[in-house]
Amino acid sequence: DAGITQSPRHKVTETGTPVTLRCHQTENHRYMYWYRQDPGHGLRLIHYSYGVKDTDKGEVSDGYSVSRSKTEDFLLTLESATSSQTSVYFCAIAPPDRDNEQFFGPGTRLTVL
Amino acid sequence: GQQLNQSPQSMFIQEGEDVSMNCTSSSIFNTWLWYKQEPGEGPVLLIALYKAGELTSNGRLTAQFGITRKDSFLNISASIPSDVGIYFCAGQGYSGGSNYKLTFGKGTLLTVNP
Fold first, then answer.
1. How far from chain centre, in Å, is Cα A21?
2. Which of A34, A80, B54, B85 sits most deeply, having the most CB atoms within 10 A of its CB?
């Protein structure tokens, strides 16, 4: 158990509404990541963080923003959700002594109608 | 960007059979990871490889880091029904300042018939 929780676990929303997904860790690890998983595409990195207030873009960052005001929380925001953002979203952390290894949360299934 | 080609895309095997899957890349990687994902859950790390030629086992699972640093394989011996799931490879490459970003293969779906 990597000590990662994601909330909500499931969400249905409408196009154009803002959505925020939360990733919470209990280990105070520095590195945190947000991925989306879609059929035929595997896991793709959206944004990542290497410390409080330190974030950077991944390969599919358009339409997403992130914030990390506390070590334990990494928030992913869809400012105006679109149907193409229907996906399963995973948060991951990397422990300091094995920072090439990432450990994943349980995921959030988001449906945008 | 870096890409991983994972094969096969799916496998249907009988319980007790051995399984082999692999990942290849045109780029060099300095770390290879293998994950398993079951329905409705997040990927779980199975094996991590850090050195070219390294062979590592975890129970019935064995993985190797290719000598060229461009490939890796995962073997599962004597498969059982609970081996069912999607297996992903992931690599971290020599991209200096990559902040430990991983590139993932698209997965191998394993089905085991009892």
1. 7
2. A34
